[in-house]
């Protein structure tokens, strides 16, 4: 087993790139090809609790409201948690046909949890939440 984090980073980036490409192609099977069987996806108002459920819901979405869409993703961080886990945080959004950028109201902060199984990095969990304006905390009373 290699402790080379550069190789691990490249492998994780490749998994994300394949997922984004599959989304753009409307390919639900390809999108979840590198998810664990017990993966979870949490999005506003929903919990998808397996790779099969995630795939089925994305297939329906690609036939309907997400038809011909793509994604915007800007990685904010990637950190390793031990040898076989990593967390990626990104700013993401959906680009609908005709859009060249995601409106601010459509942006989300996303967390991807990766697990290395049998030498392969897989997505074990995904969560997103709408980007909101920063909250200012006052220290005066």
Summarize this structure briefly.
This protein is of the alpha+beta class and 141 residues long. The protein contains three helices and six strands; from the N terminus they run H-H-E-E-H-E-E-E-E. The model has no long low-confidence stretch (mean pLDDT 93).
When the domains are counted, the total is: 1
Q: What is Rg?
A: 16 Å
Given the C-alpha coordinates, what overall shape results? Answer: globular
Report how far the terminal alpha carbons are from each other. Answer: 55 Å
CATH architectural grouping: Roll
Number of helices: 3
Which blocks of ≥5 consecutive residues have pLDDT under 50? none
CATH class: Alpha Beta
State the major sheet: 6 strands, mixed
Overall helicity: 25-40%
Strand content: 35-45%
Strand order of the largest sheet: 2-1-6-5-4-3
Number of strands: 6
What's the order of the H and E elements?
HHEEHEEEE
Going by helix content, strand content and strand pairing, the class is: alpha+beta
CATH overall fold name: Nuclear Transport Factor 2, Chain: A
**If you average the pLDDT, what whole number results?**
93
């Amino acid at each position: 087993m290699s402790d080379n984090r550069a190789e691990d980073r490249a492998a994780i980036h490749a998994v994300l790139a394949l997922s984004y490409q599959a989304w753009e192609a409307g390919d639900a099977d390809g999108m979840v090809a590198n998810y664990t069987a017990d993966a979870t996806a949490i999005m506003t108002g929903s919990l998808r609790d397996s790779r099969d459920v995630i795939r089925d819901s994305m297939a329906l979405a690609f036939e309907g409201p997400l038809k011909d869409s793509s994604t915007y993703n800007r990685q904010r961080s990637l950190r390793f948690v031990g040898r076989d886990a990593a967390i990626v945080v990104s700013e993401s959004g959906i680009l609908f046909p005709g859009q060249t950028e995601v409106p601010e109201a459509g942006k989300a902060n996303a967390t991807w949890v990766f697990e290395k199984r049998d030498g392969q990095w897989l997505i074990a969990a995904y969560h997103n939440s709408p980007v909101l304006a920063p909250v200012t905390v006052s220290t005066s009373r």
